[in-house]
């Protein structure tokens, strides 16, 4: 971005840019985890044995949002244009997220009107302009289309990054490593720190408050800058994937609530960095097949629609809170998965993509010395809040239910 200092000559910077299709596929995995968590907490499956399996796989599924936040920081730093302006960056981010959000905001208000659910004007306006994550009052931060609280956090991250990027480019490697190491410890420290917050606001403080949730974003930022300079040291994709699976199983089964988010943040950053490195170096990756790339491209739209669709259908059919016996519960969950995918594909095709083309600033140059386009940075391509098919990164030199969410950091109930 304009005014970004040139790194010290001693630092080996990247040369030509490459795409990161593996991060697109991984983004779908994160979206699927969030979907599974919400489907599990809605009580769709009445059969205890089937519900137990659902819980085993998706009990930590809400941490998929944690993955999104880390990935956003990683991609945006790796793909930052040295000649970009802050205004152009902010305009692209608004063009990527806000139009689809407005569509779901309007749809959620229509559903509320159909069921005669009261919606205050202040709640609606806060949600429309993505300010709700700053409001600790119950019924405000989870409101309208409840999942949009994370977009409110993302907007805060996007506002901060262009202001912080000059300092990030000048930071010493040890300082960047300190951020990567410190974030899991700070997440862990939220457990005792919440005692300083009024009890009724502790959930909001640990789960929703944008400065707190930005810890994950800055972790991705620091890791990306280290990789950009060729200073990242981490396992390859096969080992990183095994570490993630092992961490997930251990955290889900045996780790106390105040520990698992910190552990997963480390596992996520290892997988993200390893997948990016595999793509840049042309190594094998299971996440960049054509179906996985498409799923990743529509994952942002899928995330926006899934809770509203499931709750609306269950209320219309009278099955909200009742559950389905036998294999019907599993069938209904799979049906919701397919319906949400179809709606997400439509939203991506007819809202997200054309609005990016319409609202994104035109490029003034075809390439830059240290990298080219980022995912979602060119008209019509999905951005870091959704799929990452368009990610272009430097090539290193070889060397709610509203009250039923489980914690991302701590169990404050």
TrEMBL record:
Keyword Cell inner membrane: no
Segments of skewed composition (Basic and acidic residues): 402-413
Key words of the record: Acyltransferase, Hydrolase, Membrane, Transferase, Transmembrane, Transmembrane helix
MF (Gene Ontology): acyltransferase activity, transferring groups other than amino-acyl groups; hydrolase activity
Low complexity bias: start-end ranges: 362-390
Gene Ontology biological-process entries: lipopolysaccharide biosynthetic process
A cellular-component GO term for this protein: membrane
Protein name according to UniProt: Acyltransferase
Organism of origin: Micromonospora peucetia
